[in-house]
Specification:
The complex is a heterodimer of chains A (154) and B (162). With 154 residues, chain A is α/β, with parallel strands linked by helices. Chain A is built from 5 helices and 5 strands, in the order βααββββααα. Chain A has one domain: Mannitol-specific EII, Chain A (3-Layer(aba) Sandwich), CATH 3.40.930.10. In chain B, helix 4 packs parallel to helix 6. The relative contact order of chain B is 0.21. Classes of the chains: A alpha/beta (154), B alpha/beta (162).
């Protein structure tokens, strides 16, 4: 399963406007809704918020992986959001989160969903990954970099 | 000379390359007159790691575990039908746990002469390669291991097979 096959440049926002957790999820859901007009952004937002109420997906190292199973999407979709200033996402180390990887998958695609989450968890532990993404000038640069990592070129 | 391939074990993980591996394993089982068994393992270890990293909460982990079990049954059922279409009856087994350990255990318990699997997964670093399940199965299995590549060629061969 190639993670980057599920990321489209239009689903990457390198300068999030959001200033808090709710706004981040709302903005990422909107990004997905805009790039895939068939998807119901409100349903995606509700599904992710419901998952967050069970426990925050804000990890350490300034990364959060909000996710949910939701039949408002027809295939695994990954939205990447970057906040240069950082947002309080109720993270494990209490520090602001800068990188957001939101994963939404239909209820029948749990296998790829779990694999994609696991791959992101591995990526964020790689040297320079986080700083490189934070410095990206456009969505394509983010995607190209992630592809190179995934294909073993870096 | 005795048949060197009396029992073939196929490991599937639901990927496209697993299906290619299934086609090759079925073709080989028919060609050698071998028995064939298919194993799918719910990667409980990975789910536990995601729980430990607090990416998952407990109830969610259990939910995904049930989903993966269902996926596994679906894949096994699909491959049984694939074999059936070619006139081959096969056994299936679904396990849960650490993938490479469960596959290695099944190799021994079944007495497999050959383990067949699809292409190895992508790795993000050299260190990561030591944790990739396909790689670990390769190193851990006590019998010969075949890694199947060449989807188009195998698909054509399988379709042409009676």
């Amino acid at each position: 399963m190639m993670l980057t096959d599920h990321i489209r440049p239009e689903n990457i926002r390198i300068d999030l406007d959001a200033e808090n957790k709710t706004e981040v999820i709302e903005e990422l859901a909107e990004v997905l809704g805009e790039s895939s007009p068939d998807y119901d952004a409100d349903a995606i937002y509700e599904a992710v918020m419901a998952r967050e109420r069970d426990g925050s997906t804000g990890l350490e190292l300034g990364v959060a992986i909000p996710h949910a199973k939701c039949d408002a999407v027809s295939e695994l979709s990954v939205v990447v959001g970057i906040s240069k200033d950082g947002v309080d996402f109720d993270s494990q180390d209490g520090k602001p989160s800068h990188l957001f990887f939101m994963l939404i998958a239909p209820k029948t695609e749990s296998g790829p969903h779990v694999q994609a989450i696991a791959k992101i968890v591995k990526m964020i532990k790689l040297d320079n990954f986080r700083s490189r993404l934070l410095k990206a000038r456009d969505p394509q640069e983010v995607l190209d970099y992630m592809k190179k990592i995934e294909e073993g070129e870096i | 000379m005795s048949n060197p391939m009396r029992k073939i074990l196929l490991y599937v993980d639901g990927s496209e390359s697993s299906i290619t591996a299934a086609q090759m394993a079925i073709a080989m089982a028919k060609s050698y007159g071998a028995m064939m068994k298919v194993i799918y393992v719910v990667n409980e270890n990975l789910l536990n790691e995601l729980l430990k990293a607090r990416v998952f909460v407990q109830v969610e982990k259990m939910d995904y575990e049930r989903d993966l079990e269902e996926d596994g049954r679906r894949y096994l059922n699909y491959i049984s039908k694939l074999a059936d279409r070619k006139g081959l009856k096969i056994e299936t087994v679904l396990r849960k746990g650490v993938v490479h350990e469960e596959v290695a255990r099944e190799v021994d318990e079944y007495g497999a002469d050959l383990l067949v699997q699809g292409e190895l997964g992508e790795v993000l670093s050299l260190r990561d390669s030591f944790y990739e399940e396909g790689e670990r199965i390769l190193r851990k299995a006590s019998c010969c291991v075949m890694v199947v590549r060449g989807r188009d060629k195998i698909e054509k061969m399988f379709e042409a097979m009676e």
